[in-house]
């Protein structure tokens, strides 16, 4: 993308949320991130639901949970928009906070301030001894100004690299996604005024529509996984991934395309792992995106969850938070469950479940942004007879009819696991994986 050319991005204000914050639960949680305190409580931080509403306070919304399923509103981290952020941007609310535990044991919150359609934006830092607060604002760490910079300083996310050093990744539309090193002690840029190096961008033909980036370090493979959201947050959001050997890239998708490639068709770049879909006439989930990743120790090693917001097809003005189990295929590619997380106790089988048989599947065509309806399919797992629900890496063969075309035995490098079938209200096997062309398939087994 050429320097100095900034696409226009105009978005309407978010509608008034329904009900008082105490009644929300997980609704109206936009751009969410989750951490766990030492006492076991889960804390979620998210964008202010409405930036100019007298009934909804600004200052980063907080929710708490004991099970990652049921969430209770717990107020705001800050008392409105801190002075330095307001003076720079004129923002009425705070967006897309990311919270991490720092080397000294304190918690760092990187929040964003801006106004719709402008890249006069800023990322600020607040610190606290505990996820519950109190939070002390330490001012701005990255700031951009319209007409002066091509970057857009919002949507911050922090990654600790293989050496334990921290990197701040940010960016939304305009000239793309950037990452820069942070000082180990202060949590501020090592070099004052550093706006970082470019790691992902998109063509002006799609208004450079990429944002909500998150980088996850995988020590198992010494790789960095970049998650990013494409297209419109109101209707066509979808999550893409790419991997790199270094936190600064280059990040490449399953087919080897670089996330900075501006020559190929813009919808073909990035491996699409989540998009709009519906099972069995159940609720249609629209425009999932702006994810973070929450990781915790589990019975079989570390458990990973993709944390994101999603809209309701029936009323796209309303949105809610979802957590989905995140797995890695045999080849090391991230895939997510087609079913939102329902809690440990719900994703349990009384007896082992056969893998081969009748399933309902979705295929996430990277060239399409439309809602995908699950369709009947046959899965063949070969010699694998049954699973007790623990995640299992395997190659499955999918036979299905899509758009009038019969596909037989499509091989998919998959993870099969226990889930909760929300459309049927019962535990069920699910799978998610990637075929040889880099297309993600997901599904849930018929009872």
* CATH C-level name of the largest domain: Mainly Beta
What is the count of helical runs?
1
What is the topology, as strand order, of the major beta sheet? 23-25-27-28-29-30
Largest sheet: 6 strands, antiparallel, barrel
The CATH superfamily of the largest domain is Glycosyl hydrolase domain, family 43
The domain count comes to: 2
Beta-strand fraction estimate: over 45%
- Quaternary assembly: single chain
Number of strands: 30
Shape-level CATH architecture of the largest domain: 5 Propeller
Helix content: under 10%
Give the overall shape: globular
The CATH topology of the largest domain, please?
Tachylectin-2, Chain A
Specify Rg, calculated over alpha carbons: 21 Å
End-to-end separation in angstroms reads 50 Å
Any overview of this molecule?
By secondary structure, the chain is mostly beta strands. The chain is built from 1 helix and 30 strands. The protein starts with 29 loop residues before the first strand and ends with a strand.
Topology (SSEs and partners):
Blueprint: E1 30-36, E2 42-47, E3 61-65, E4 72-76, H1 83-89, E5 95-101, E6 107-113, E7 121-128, E8 136-144, E9 157-160, E10 166-170, E11 177-181, E12 197-200, E13 210-218, E14 223-230, E15 238-244, E16 271-274, E17 277-278, E18 285-298, E19 301-312, E20 315-328, E21 334-336, E22 353-354, E23 357-364, E24 372-373, E25 375-380, E26 386-387, E27 392-402, E28 405-421, E29 426-435, E30 440-445
Parallel strand pairs: 17-24
Antiparallel strand pairs: 1-2, 2-3, 3-4, 5-6, 6-7, 7-8, 9-10, 10-11, 11-12, 13-14, 14-15, 15-16, 18-19, 19-20, 20-21, 22-26, 23-25, 23-30, 25-27, 27-28, 28-29, 29-30
